[in-house]
Amino acid sequence: MIAELVLATLFGLLLLGIHRKLIARIQRRPGPPVWQEILHMLKFSFKTTWIPNTASPTLFVGVVLIAIGIWTAAFYVLVSGGSLLVILGIYMLHKIVEHGFGLSSGSPYGKYGGVRSVISAASEIPLFVSVAVIGVYSHSLDLSSIIQYQQVSGPLLFTAFPVACAMFLVILSKMPFGPFSIVESKELVSGYKTEHFGIWRAGLEVCNGLKTYVLLAVFLTVFIGPLTLPWLLAGMIILIVLLAFSCAITPMMSPFDSVTIQMMVTGMMLVYAAIVLVVVHP
Amino acid sequence: MADFIGGLPYYILEFGDELVYFTPYTITLFLLALAFTLLAIISRPERQMDIAFGGDAYRTKDISISEMRFRRFMAIACGLASMGAMVTGDIFNFTLFTAMVGITNVGIVAAVKSPHVQDAAYQYGLVALSATVPLFAGAAVYAAATGSLSMIELMKGTLPAVPLVAKAMLVTGVVGEGMAPFYAAKAEMFRAPGAPYVIMCSLSSLLIFLRVVEVVMLG
């Protein structure tokens, strides 16, 4: 389990590196090498570390451990074919981690990053609707049951395409340099993670790598079905290419616009869910 | 066998019709509430920096000991209410814990000596107060329609179907007690100093929302 966890984290970081490189190339910049995020994590691990004077020390350190802990739990749920609802819960609780990162330092940049994280909770609501529709089709929220359903009835990507689009948007909202990345926009320096450096930032990088791996793997598992490891990794690379294109060609929105668009998607998903409930599966 | 949406339970503690159960889903949420409550107990608040607009001046917002004690007490109460709401197997108990989360959230922020934050806390208090009506009415309709408030009984599928209006009322109540758009848009509350306590507000709101998703999918 530990070996898988380490490999998943490193592959997640590699995916983030590919994401960054692709965005740079689309924008006609050379960009960093694809392993830059792994180097970042290693570099921060050995840098001098301290806790700012203004910080709440226990919380400042505690949120880093919680961030790694929740995504490790999500990875375990994914590997064991557990409930999609648990992964959904962990995904949403990541908001609290971001809020904790931002507020615990006492920095105004971190604080506003954390506040933006909380107000953009709207981006998670399409996820609820998506999960509900998946439950209607597969009659279960266990990943193993969803896989079995797809073996019999074909990939949910085709059966419930709007749900896949909504889930893609949810993942997009968590990607760096994307249209919804208001929590770490440049006017806030690095947003909620501004004051976390050294080993704390390395911990955050580990969390980001694991989070990327888990989210992409869950997407493929839920919408494509059972995949062997090479196909799973290839699918994740294809997904990251799509995400990179989406991020590279769209500007970062203002917090208001970001939340408005996410709420509109939520509205559309609610209508779709109602249609599925009333017409398709009454 | 009941269809446990959050996974099969590890442990069920029965008190007659009422019970507490730990599924992978509820235990994840419970442990998160526990971890943040422990953090609220042992953490000291940060000294939040404020930059004066249009200049280089800055100052720190310090929290007095008496304010810190009160807010810590409220944060612990909020954590306990959240933990209760996460593992209870009874709809009425869930609504009680949710209402307590709303009250303690107001308490956490209302102690901040800033007019902006107190205004936000007051407005939120009004919303939370109003939200108790659909919250408890939802539980009442559950009982009236199915004859039971036990989540395990609802999962078994042997009871009459829960009316959609009951589920809608329950969700409306939870939304009013702690979730967007009534709460998350109130940035004044979230940027108030005292990170370990303010985080309990957002955590508890999110947790009760996550739990109600499971609750409305039963029956």
Protein described:
The complex is a heterodimer of chains A (282) and B (219). Chain A has 282 residues and is an all-alpha fold. Chain A has one domain. Chain A has helices spanning 2-26, 36-45, 57-80, 84-104, 108-119, 125-138, 143-153, 156-159, 161-172, 199-223, 229-248, 255-280. The model of chain A has no long low-confidence stretch (mean pLDDT 84). Chain B has eight helices and four strands. In chain B, strand 3 and strand 4 (58-61) form a beta hairpin. Chain B is elongated and about 65 Å long. The chains are: A mainly alpha (282), B mainly alpha (219). Chains A and B meet through helix 3, helix 4, helix 5 and helix 6 of A and helix 1, strand 3 and helix 8 of B.
Features:
heterodimer, A: 282 residues, mainly alpha, 12 helices, 0% strand, globular, B: 219 residues, two-stranded antiparallel ribbon, two-stranded antiparallel sheet, 8 helices
Largest inter-chain contact set:
A-B, 47 and 43 residues
Q: What sort of overall outline of chain A do the alpha carbons produce when their principal axes are compared? A: globular
How many helices of chain B in DSSP terms?
Answer: 8
Write down the domain tally of chain A: 1
Helix content of chain B: 55-70%
- How big is the Rg of chain A? 19 Å
The SSE string of chain B, one letter per element, is EEHEEHHHHHHH
Q: What profile does the largest beta sheet of chain B have?
A: 2 strands, antiparallel
Order of helical and strand elements of chain A: HHHHHHHHHHHH
Query: For the largest beta sheet of chain B, what order do the strands appear in spatially?
Result: 1-2
